[in-house]
Amino acid sequence: MATSKAGCGCSGSGRDESSKNRSAATDGKGAENLKVHLGLIDRKVTLLISAGAAMAANCEPCLRKIVPQLREVGASDAEIRRAVITGQFVKDRPAELMKQVADELTGTNLAEGPTADFCPGDTMKRDDGYKVMMLIAAGAAMGANCEPCLNRIVPELLEAGVSETDIRRAVEIGQFVKDKPAAIMKEAADVLTGSKLSEKPAAEDCSAIATKQAGGCCA
């Protein structure tokens, strides 16, 4: 399948270790493990999206909680690896983009090579596995604060036939997970310094939990 060039966004150089992750994330092998009944993000898909967002948001406590829950709901090792690799892949995009911007504005050579217009799933068939992969990527884009990634991912999800409801749920899950490290750091600062920064988010802030589909979205 030809690589989509719709609007760029998830550009990256593909020179470092992330290129290995890119290959693993987009290899069509194992995509059948991600098949679900789309139109409803169930608990397993919620947790897969959460795992990708946890990688993107650097939330170690989140990942430590989510991975065992994924195994409890029957997610395979291949599914779990694919979710975290996709999250890491998306997480790397903002850094790649900022290197390119810095090179352009200041004459540095941080990018050190040609860039590639590439997103998770570009080499996959547009089947259920692709759709779940891109829902994970959408959540990870929120976790990584990567607007160009989201600008690329959402139209491709719509083009693939994913409902707006599922897309909204994915980005809401990503936002919820992204907020967790900040809440944890506020609590740590309160303990260590006596500050009053804590504003712990309520579990109901995660729409997937509100609809009883998360069962532990890092709450």
UniProtKB/TrEMBL annotation:
SUPFAM superfamilies named in the record: AhpD-like (SSF69118)
Give the region (Disordered) as residue ranges: 1-28
Residue intervals of the Carboxymuconolactone decarboxylase-like domain: 39-92
What's a Gene Ontology MF term here? peroxiredoxin activity
Pfam families xref list = CMD
The domain of life is Bacteria
This one is known as Carboxymuconolactone decarboxylase-like domain-containing protein
Look up and give the organism this protein is from.
Answer: Candidatus Abyssobacteria bacterium SURF_17
